[in-house]
Amino acid sequence: MPFIQTLTGKNAGEKAVEMFTRAIREFGYLPNMVKVFSHRPEVMDAWDGLLDSIKSNMDVRRYELVTIAAAKQLRSSYCMLAHGSFLLRDHFTAQELQAVVEDAEEPSLDATDRAVMQFATKVVRDATSISADDIEGLRSHGLSDQEIFDVASAAAARCFFSKLLDAMGAQPDSAYNEIEPGLRKSLLVGRQIANDGSADQEAAQSEPR
C-alpha cells in the first residue's frame, strides 16, 4: 500500500475515474502506480504527454535500454520490472536481459547500446559530471545531437517518475512475481513487489510508463 491514502470509488473525482478506466483497459487491472496519481490525475496526463513527445523521436529498444539504465541507478524496482517486462517480451530472452541488467558482457548489446546506457546512468548519477567529451563519445557512435538530446531527456524524465513512486511508497504490482526468479531478483533494485495477488502475468507485460 502507498504511504498516502489514495482515492477510489466515490471519493475519486471524475478525472481520476477516467484515469483508472484507461489504466484498467490497458493493463487489465489498476496498477499501484496509477493509484498514487488519484489526487492529481492531471499530473499523470502531463507525464503521459511528456513521454509521448520523447518516445516519438526514439527507437523503442533504445528508449527502453535508457530507461532501464536510469531506473537501475535510481534503484526503482517498479520501473525496472515494468520496462524489463517490455524488453523481455519484445527484445531479449530472460538470460540476455539478466546479463544486461547485471552489466555482464551481453552479445545482444553493441558498443552503441553500452555507450548510451552509460551516458543515461551518468545523467541520473551526476549530470554536472557530464563533459563535452561525453557528448563527443556519443557522436563517435553515430548519434546526432538530436538523438543525444533524446537520450538525456528519457533519462532525466525517469528521475521524476521513479522518485515520485518511491517517495509515495508505491510497490511494484504482484503481476511481476510471474517473471523468471533469477531475472526478477536482478530487477528488484529497491522496493519489493506487493503481495496482494491482484494482477496476472499478461497484465504486467503491457506497455510501461
UniProtKB/TrEMBL annotation:
<dbReference type="Pfam" id="PF02627">
    <property type="entry name" value="CMD"/>
</dbReference>
<protein>
    <submittedName>
        <fullName>Carboxymuconolactone decarboxylase family protein</fullName>
    </submittedName>
</protein>
<dbReference type="InterPro" id="IPR003779">
    <property type="entry name" value="CMD-like"/>
</dbReference>
<feature type="domain" description="Carboxymuconolactone decarboxylase-like">
    <location>
        <begin position="41"/>
        <end position="121"/>
    </location>
</feature>
<dbReference type="InterPro" id="IPR029032">
    <property type="entry name" value="AhpD-like"/>
</dbReference>
